[in-house]
Design a protein that fits this description.
Blueprint: H1 3-6, E1 44-45, E2 52-56, E3 84-87, H2 88-101, H3 105-116, H4 125-139, E4 145-152, E5 158-164, H5 171-184, E6 193-198, H6 208-211, E7 213-218, H7 225-235, H8 243-246
Antiparallel strand pairs: 1-2, 2-3, 4-5, 5-7, 6-7
Helix pairs in contact: 2-3, 4-7, 5-7
Length: 253
């Protein structure tokens, strides 16, 4: 599931249909006959030739609000007569994955898409545009850290590249703190980020003091960098630019 779908400090949880729109309960006093919606779902292929297969299925009916009038109905939004054309290798790989998982091809494709697609209300490039400078500003206050660059991709993933002064007395504590929060803050609910070292080829360039850098990347798109900055601020020593707070023995001094 995309992190924005699970609810967070930036994205509140809600009862939604599977395209992210709020589900609307049907009143018991106005129960209607079943709503018939038809769409083509990935299931079986027709006999198209070439390097791709056209994925098709039977018409599918969706019954809304029949058994329990006071339970929010599940509404399936479909586009009539939609075909999804996949390269043969991709289609075959998806079929094999679905078989190993014990799912239909349709259920498997939906599950994969739900895991990487944010709800519609979270699809906002402006969140990254305004939030990234806030994360950069916070990281620039961390002892020994110098932000080298930052940016986002066309698919609205983002990254921050930074240098950590290995001669700084708190260098490896900074690495440890960032690694904890950004990679391993919780076994059940990890942040949608990764913190990792990067380097050009050492044998062609030089040692870690000059050429070892670090990158923070979002692992899902449309994640608010300002939320990541707030999480770091709440977990790292405070204030983050006070060296006394980074000294593990400062309470005993």
């Amino acid at each position: 599931m995309h992190p924005a779908s699970a609810g967070s400090r930036r994205h509140s949880a809600c009862m939604c249909d599977h395209r992210g729109s709020p589900a609307r309960p049907q009143a018991a006093s106005r129960r209607r006959p079943p709503v018939q919606r038809s769409c083509r779902l990935p299931g079986r292929t027709d006999g198209t030739s070439g390097d791709s297969k056209r994925v098709r299925t039977d018409l599918w009916s969706s019954t809304i609000g029949q058994e329990r009038a006071n339970v929010p109905p599940f509404k399936l939004h479909c586009i009539d007569n939609m075909d999804l054309e996949l390269p043969s290798k991709l289609h075959n790989a998806l079929e094999r994955e679905a078989s190993d998982a014990g799912r239909s091809l349709h259920a498997h494709v939906v599950k994969k898409l739900e895991s990487i697609t944010p709800p519609v209300e979270a699809v906002d490039r402006g969140v990254v545009t305004t939030g990234l400078p806030k994360l950069v500003a916070f990281l620039s206050r961390v002892p020994g850290v110098k932000v080298l660059s930052s940016g986002s991709t066309p698919d609205v993933f983002w990254w921050v590249k930074l240098n950590i002064d290995l001669d700084h007395s708190m260098a490896w504590q900074v690495v440890q703190e960032l690694g904890f929060v950004l990679n391993y803050i919780s076994l059940e609910e990890k942040l949608p980020t990764v913190f990792k070292p990067v380097s050009p080829a050492p044998y062609m360039n030089g040692g870690p003091k000059e050429f070892l850098s670090w990158v923070i990347e979002s692992t899902y798109n449309y994640i608010d960098p300002a939320w990541i900055a707030e999480t770091l601020e709440g977990r790292l020593p405070r204030p983050v630019d006070d060296l006394a707070q980074w000294n593990p023995d400062h309470e005993a001094l």
